[in-house]
Amino acid sequence: MPAYDYECDLCKFEFELRQGFDDEPVATCPRCSGKSRRVLRAVPVIFKGSGFYVTDNRRDTASAEEKQASGEG
Question: pLDDT tens for residues 30-49?
Answer without folding.
Answer: 999 999 999 988 888 877 76
